[in-house]
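thought: fold this chain, then report.
action: predict
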Amino acid sequence: MIKFSATLLATLIAASVNAATVDLRIMETTDLHSNMMDFDYYKDTATEKFGLVRTASLINDARNEVKNSVLVDNGDLIQGSPLADYMSAKGLKAGDIHPVYKALNTLDYTVGTLGNHEFNYGLDYLKNALAGAKFPYVNANVIDARTKQPMFTPYLIKGTEVVDKDGKKTDAEDWLYWRRPATNHGLG
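observation:
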């Protein structure tokens, strides 16, 4: 048994030495509250404090600096501004895409999750709004009272093509694996 374990350990060490190194930039937005423009409608003036239009240029710049990136939204997206209130009052018919999702789709978000304010206008409105997203949503803590099952996809493992430091393209699932804490020497 000890000989087999030593052989297995040597094989694992050799494999990890030859493993490709991939740098991945993870970007996130949060609490956009449907503030698409850099304009404060409550004060009727332009602002430099918020607006996805400003953030979009930062996202594009950050993406252009690296080979591999993902973009995540952390929620509180569809409530909290005049646009959000207008869209809620107007409602979303089948096939309508909320303006926020038109913008996020254009920015090619990888995944999103729900904030507490996504529920302000009710589940039907939320589900109609989410139907316009061209990227998946995950949420593990909202349970359907009737079925006792998660109401939304609780997690996602997404295969993504990445480029390693040597320029070789590979799918992230080819190199993604979990390590036991004992093998993470010096990694914090």
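thought: worth noting. The chain has six helices and eight strands.
final: tokens above.
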